[in-house]
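The methods section describes the discrete structure representation at length, but only in general terms. Each protein is reduced to its one-letter sequence and a matching series of backbone shape codes. I believe one specimen quoted in the main text would settle the matter. An entry of this sort, consisting of the sequence and the corresponding backbone structure tokens, reads as follows.
***
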Amino acid sequence: MGRMKDIATDLIAYEEGSLDVRETLELFALLVRSGLAWSLQGSYGRTASELMHQGYLTRDGRVTEFAESMVEELVAT
């Protein structure tokens, strides 16, 4: 149950707007890998799909190098 509790905590933080860009990408990567992106409320699946479409996540739930470079740029500014 430990990991599910962590995911629930991360989902609450996401809903509250408390996650930074990197944490958000990591959360959605995990949701895609676990399949939860497609079984939670529709906005999670739509967001995951959009992150994939924009090139930030792969279909198998990995954060892309493109996303990593974008995050690094954001952190640097």
